[in-house]
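Example 3.2
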Amino acid sequence: MTAVFPVSPISVASGDLAARLNRSLVAVRSRAGGGSGTVWTATGLVVTNNHVVPGDHAEVVTHDDRVLEARLVARDPSVDLALLRVDADDLEPVEAGDSGALRPGQFVYAVGNPWGQRGSVTAGIVLTTNASTVENGVPLEHVIRADLRLAPGNSGGPLVDAAGRVIGINAMIAGGMAVAIPSNTVVEFVATASDGEPGFLGVTFQQVQLPHAIAASYSFEDEAGLMLTDIEPGSAAEQAGLLPGDVLVGIDGERGRMPAVARRLQAMRAGRTLRLALLRGGKLHEASATPVARA
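Structure, written as tokens:
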């Protein structure tokens, strides 16, 4: 006679949760390869990692095998996030949780497409909610670390608490542990990115090192800036009087902190004037520029 053991209520609940989350998980295909995406709104907004979609377009495969063209709405390399839009109004979005309330030791799940295996689930506990790491040379601050087993393809998928609320977007593996971007960061990113069309100044720039004496004289936290190497004729930058050789060191009052300046630059919206702080000939210069929508 074969013994029959009762199924644990926790096991049943975990299975139900995983099935529900899979309906909000998509596969993202781009020229960088494959990854995951998290359905953020029923009207077609999908969150993934910036490194998953290096271009302006990608393909999204839904849980019911629909293949949808996706266009990039916004990206922010400083927090490794990208927002895609697909032409659909019947997607099943996740519920965003409060990552600020997350504590070490809490049980969490990760859902994604590691090695192309659709809808894989793994579980573990939160190790820390305030870690720092570096990805592709970009420092990531205040990220979540958890003892989850992730693999290539998990990037962009949700990290959720035991109630099924998304408290992070899985981004990478560091030291054998999962790293996720906190949901509060994601909520702020989506709110900014969804508020109007992306803006463009018409500049090309590269990061440069500032002389220590100049950075110290203005009390800059970082001895770095973004040097404008080219100004597009007729662009918002030209109309604002920006010149090649100007070094951008601040936006809207945020000066001398390159991660914050980069975030504001990535989040700029068409029609919203920016107050720019520039070094010109070693002296601080201010200008106002209004980004425009790309034609």
